[in-house]
Amino acid sequence: MRALRWHGKHDVRCDTVPDPVIEDGRDAIIKVTSCAICGSDLHLYDGFMPTMEHGDILGHEFMGEVVEVGRDNRALKVGERVVVPFTIVCGECDQCKRGNFSVCERTNRNHEKAEKVFGHTTAGLFGYSHLTGGYPGGQAEYVRVPCPGPTTHT
Questions:
Q1: Do 97 and 118 form a contact (C-beta atoms < 8 A)?
Q2: Helix (H, G, I), strand (E, B) or coil at 25
Q3: Across residues 100-129, what is the average pLDDT?
Q4: pLDDT at residue 104, rounded to an integer
Q5: Residues 138, 60 contacting (CB under 8 angstroms)
Q6: pLDDT in tens, 77-113
Q7: How far apart (Å, rounded) are the C-alpha atoms in residues 83 and 152?
Q8: What is the C-alpha to C-alpha distance for residues 26 and 56, in angstroms, rounded to an integer?
Q9: What torsion do the CA atoms of 88, 108, 130, 138 make, to the nearest 10 degrees?
Q10: Number of C-alpha atoms within 13 angstroms, CB side, residue 140?
């Protein structure tokens, strides 16, 4: 597939990369039909956000069609259209139950880094540095979406 990748400050390229795959039974694969570019993307482009890595896929606001779901995914069906915001939320932790989705306790796989820089963890975010989980973003043909039930909107 083709994806927009960060190669360094002011160096973004459209590259060919492997298609995403289901990693967890709750995952879904989304075929991206449109995505947004916002001011936060410019922070990455300008090198303002730490912990970006050469080859990271950008884009944290996208929509598309569900093309595959994991065996334990009961939230989405193949063929559904979804909007995916940049936060990845589990919907089950204490913070999610309180409605504090931006600080989901389970989705940032690099929460130790975020705690050192921000003083607290954040939710995992699509396409927005390894401080927020290092998840590939939506400026690609396909995206793996973990926890798609609470993360997506149909």
A1: no
A2: coil
A3: 89
A4: 93
A5: yes
A6: 999 999 999 899 999 999 999 999 999 999 999 888 8
A7: 6
A8: 23
A9: -10
A10: 28
Q: Token pair for residue 95?
A: 């913070």
Q: Which residue in 147, 150, 21 sits closest to 72, CA to CA?
A: 147
* Amino acid identity for residue 153 in this structure: H
Q: Is residue 6 part of a domain?
A: yes
Q: Return d(Cα 67, Cα 35) in angstroms, integer.
A: 17
CA distance 81 to 123: 24
> Is residue 96 a contact partner of residue 89, using CB atoms and an 8 Å limit?
yes
Tokens representing 37 are 């570019």
Residues 142/30, Cβ–Cβ less than 8 Å: yes
Distance, in Å, from the CA atom of 77 to the CA atom of 65, rounded to the nearest integer, reads 10
Instruction: With beta carbons less than 8 A apart as the criterion, state whether 76 and 69 touch.
Output: yes
Instruction: Say if 154 falls within a structural domain.
Output: no
CATH of the domain at 115: 3.90.180.10
